[in-house]
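sorry for the late reply, my laptop died twice this morning and i had to redo everyting from scratch. anyway the thing you sent over, i finally got around to it. pasting the sequence first so we're on the same page, its 119 residues, then the predicted structure underneath. double check i copied it right bc i was rushing
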Amino acid sequence: QVQFAESGGGSVQAGGSLRLSCVVSGNPWDRYCMGWLRQAPGKAREDVASIDTDGSTWYEDSVRGRFTISRDGAKDTAYLQMNSLKPEDTAVYYCVSDISACPLLGYYKGQGTQVTVTP
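ok and here's the structure:
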């Protein structure tokens, strides 16, 4: 059974920073994509960033240059450093662990953590 330990959400003023962490355990695949997706009330789910086991990354256009994803493969841990946050970044952020290389499919998903950015 795949389990997630997510942390780092919260509330911050626009322009501030937050760092999300995600530890995955129980994924039976040796190589798999990890990342985050987000969902705001009334909006469609949106992939935010992903990172493969070789370190290659992808970012959604609206966060590129502001967010940085990293990964400690030995510990199946991923981080999302979010800088220059904007109110439109407000959403529930879900850590995702997949069963294959990137792009992100969202096969396994954590419970989510709220990120709120106030003007």
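The chain has no helices and eleven strands.
thats about all i looked at so far, will dig more tmrw
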